[in-house]
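Exercise 7. Predict the structure of Rod shape-determining membrane protein cell elongation from Xenorhabdus nematophila.
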Amino acid sequence: MTDSQNKVPFWTRIHIDIPLLLFILALLAYSLFIMWSASGQDIDMMERKIVQVIIGLIIMIVLAQIPPRIYENWAPYLYIGCVILLILVDVFGQISKGAQRWLDLGIVRFQPSEIAKIAVPLMVARFMNRDLCPPSLKNTGIALVLIFVPTLLVAAQPDLGTSILIAASGLFILFLAGMNWKLIGVAVLLLACFIPILWFFLMHDYQRARVMMLLDPEK
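Solution. The predicted structure, encoded as tokens:
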């Protein structure tokens, strides 16, 4: 190993951003505290969650060693496969607790919406990487289509929380690509106009109840 390689910090060599890692660890610690409080200080559950967190961090470090070009090359296949699986869920998915979110392949039962959390931002990042910054109006529209096709498929299951998370992950990538502030303003205005329609006509009673509980936990 050369002297220049020795001077490179360990975390840089394994492609880990320290500020981002600290932010993730802070979120994990806060989440664990909330679960510990909500579970009535269930030690067994907390031990399982801590093990899951450790496994997740190890997987994160392993995945960080894969060159970004590989993710870029595989993003379209992951995205297309995810959309196909989401369509299959709407057609053949298993219904559980009033929602049709699970796909049973015989040997494994899973939620394709979990794949969308990764596939959507990867696909949007790959698409925007081929455009100049800030992105053109045409490419911004195409990116929005890439975001909202899987988002609407997940919302139809219905799974409002996951669909919002998927949309947010894609829109965040679009924002980082340098989306025009005028377009952002128009998008915010359209979203504000859409919220009443979402609340009164598209959301289920239990979804509205969850929102009200978030806004007023003591109610």
